[in-house]
Here is the input.
Amino acid sequence: MAQVQLEHISKVFGEGADATTAVDDVSLTIDDHEFMILLGPSGCGKSTLLRMVAGLEDPTSGDLLIDGLRVNDVEPKLRDVAMVFQSYALYPHKTVQRNIEFPLKVRGVSKAERAKEAERAAEVLGLTDYLRRKPGQLSGGQRQRVALARAIVRRPAVFLMDEPLSNLDAKLRGDTRAELVDLHRRLNSTFIYVTHDQVEAMTMGTRVAVINKGRIEQVGSPQEVYDAPASTFVAQFIGTPPMNLLPPGMIGASDVQIGVRPEHLRVDPSGTITGSVRQLEHLGHEVLLLAEGDGGLHLTARIAPHDQVPGVGDVVRFTADERFLHRFDAATGVRLP
Amino acid sequence: MRADVPHGLRRVGRYSLLALVSAVVLFPIWAVLMQAFKSGPDALNHPESLLPTNLTLDTVRAAWTEGELGRALFNSVVVAVVVTICVMLVSLLSAFAFSFLQFPGKGVVFVAFVATMLVPAEVTVVVNRRTVESWGWLNSYQGLIIPSLASTFGMLLLRQMFLQLPKELREAASLDGVGNMRFLWEVAAPLSRPTLGALGLFTFLGTWNAYLWPSQIIKDRDHRTIQIALEGLSGAQINRFNLVTGGLVIASLPIFAMLVVFQRQLVRGLTAGAVKG
Amino acid sequence: MKRRLRDVPGAVAMLLPSMLLLAVWTVYPLVKAFINGTKSCDSTGTRCTDVGWQQYSNVWSSREFQDALAVSLKLALMTVPTGLILGVGLAVLADKHLRGIGFFRTVFSSTVATSVAVASLVWVVLLQPEIGVLSDLFSGWIPSLKNPGLLRDPGTALPAVALSSVWANLGFTFIVVTAGLQSIPRDLYESAYVDGASSWRRFTNVTLPMLTPSLLFIVVVLTTRALQAYGEIALLTQGGPNPEKSTTTIPYLIYGENSLIRNNLGLKSAAAVLLFLVSLVFAVVQYRGFEKRVQYAR
Here is the structure.
């Protein structure tokens, strides 16, 4: 299996005045057997990063190593990576079986061997009954599985996945998340997974790299990233609803910005943060309370539904434990120790 | 939809109009058919009789033997089939290069390709005839076939189709180690079947119907195409004049059959050509 | 290898066949034709002397070329508008959901299967003065059908050729307009209908503007075909009747069996290049003229 190393990788599209930097000096080591999530908003460069690992794009500068070997100039087919695309990229005119077999056929595997491998992969993904169908006759979830089967049949060292769940409906997405984690455990190989969905990142990754504007903001386990976001960007990108950022100076020094997650805000008459309730969202298991206050203060708090819930327009005081407060540099957004 | 005219009446009116116009459009074809299936004297003495009475195959048969149409049909089929296959192959290759490959100067080369479409046959025929002559290709299949392969229409049509294929297909294939030729053969070409079909149909029709080029380079009977053979029939004496009608029937039958079978594809192909070409 | 250059060998290999073909059969003859137009050659075409670009203006202003150009333009004037109107008319007539409409569509598009040679010979059969079908049927009303015959009367020969080519092109125009009509979104008609537009208004305000790209295509193709008409002339009139040469188009002047310049490579080339330039000017003017409307239609 394989370790993937990115060393000072940059990617610039265009030239001269039109040049845009998609990836800016990214260094990252993805260990063997890891399920690494590249998480960020659209246009942050995460897909470009993945495509460079695949060999579909060349880095403008920096080195890309797989198992210690520099592969910058190695053709995609020799990198021993498989990729699952957001659109699945199945061959519409081939049956499911032929789709799954195709990578083996290209490698000159014998017909009998191909069929055996395809059936095995189909079984792993529950596609056995659909081998004779064409992709057009399958549901979105089934097509997604065919794309996965086509990737695993090759037994690549590294799996690359580019938002593979984003075309599925919410229910199916949840089920497939669990299956992917299961698949990762069974295959025991390296996964690199691109998504903009922080729920996918939290639930599936062994580690998450949060990317913004072509740069890595933070790398860590999902819990680390959640508990100790390295910047205000990470703090707001991970967690729904996002972390509240108080106007600088409201608590503490004026060059420090305090952040507090909605679940850590408590309604408390002796609290130091004041706001008036603007809206209540009843979600059943909890209530989201949206409040506004002086100095451009916008707050979201999670409240248990059966506690006494204030009404819209009420002025409410909030408090939070010291240990749940996050401190950021007000100018740079970087986490303070 | 005016309310004052009853619906049924309007429909009758439209059908009558359609039938009338059809009759006018079909009249020349009908007249030729009737002439062709009359006996020689009948055709000469009663050309005005347009009802199918006393039908006979004599004229068609006579045209077949005297015009050596069997040979001409064979030549036309050989030339049209070979040209069609070769044009599809050559166009597939160049369209693939322009859609899926990156190379320096691609834009310039592409514009140069498209620019050649503006050059009419009238300009090139004189020189091409001399080229063919100097290569000893007058009165030969290769003289009919090879110069007819120089066309960019197919490349444009297929490129348009290729560019509509999702980029991820090529990317996924390249990760699997699929080379250009294999991708073209196993993925791009099968997915472009309707476009390929239309291209094949157009090329076949165009080659089958070509007149100017064959008329300039074919003088012997062994290599003339059906269109040239027809001209020979029309040059016959007045009392054999009806022979040409038999020839017309023979020459048109295969094409009409093709048209009936592939009509939808023709419309689709022309749409692509009309809107995008 | 760098990605930029990785594809180069493949691209060269794949483009080579078409590049060779185009180089030998299109680019070389085009360049050669331009050069040949400046030469004066003997009848075998082997010994040539350079007479310079002067020859182009000589050919252009020659009586023969001007006459042929006039014939070609007249033919275009007779065939293009008629063909366009008939094509649109037929397509609109058949663009209705009626039982059996498929049959009428096949009939209207049938002439697309006729070659220039077949279509021309069909009209020879119809118009031949002694035993032509039409000549026999209608000579009572139109005596010139019999004597001298439509194709042999200097006044009617060119219109008769035009008739034949309008008929032959009908299938093509019908198919293009039908395809254009089918790509007009239905909701445009429905919204016009809901707005209370009469059927004529719907035609002029929805159908025609949306058809403009198809119509432009037809106009350009029909004009090109008219300017390049050779087969129909060779089969119907051989450029005659003479001595008026009423149907000697430029292509027939160049390639015709009894052409004056048949054996003069230099003059032939000059005339062919001039014809090319005339067609080019027409195509450019037509595209320009339509351009605004095409964009407006979108």
Observations:
- DSSP finds 14 helices and no strands in chain B.
- The mean pLDDT of chain B is 83.
- Chain B touches chain C through 93 residues (CB under 8 Å).
